[in-house]
């Protein structure tokens, strides 16, 4: 799985998106991140592992506390993909609009 695939895979789950949203407010411990979710800690840690493997977050352990924080570089990779898709579709819709306008003008010129 390439990095972009890993990012979209990680963001494809609502628990992981909620973790990302929470980390947007700043670093947090795994315990704090897990509190809102009705699942066992080992299951929650699988979500953390997927987020770390995608490069969206990092974590470090000090003593018994593992703290997670966002990494912005792979968010930029996803944003670049969205930007490229938006550019492609804007270009296509612009060409379609030009075609329709040309066809309408030809129709008007023919009719009179």
Describe the structure.
With 112 residues, the chain is an alpha+beta fold. It has helices at 3-11, 14-23, 30-34, 41-54, 73-111; strands at residues 28-29, 57-62, 65-70. The chain has a three-stranded antiparallel sheet. A hairpin with a 2-residue loop joins β2 (57-62) and β3 (65-70). The protein is rod-shaped.
List the helices and strands and how they pair.
Blueprint: H1 3-11, H2 14-23, E1 28-29, H3 30-34, H4 41-54, E2 57-62, E3 65-70, H5 73-111
Antiparallel strand pairs: 1-3, 2-3
Structure described in brief:
With 112 residues, this protein is an alpha+beta fold. The protein contains five helices and three strands; from the N terminus they run ααβααββα.
Helix content: 55-70%
Q: Main sheet: which strands, in order across?
A: 1-3-2
Strand and helix order: HHEHHEEH
Task: Specify Rg, calculated over alpha carbons.
Answer: 23 Å
Core attributes:
alpha+beta, rod-shaped, 112 residues, three-stranded antiparallel beta sheet, 5 helices, 12% strand
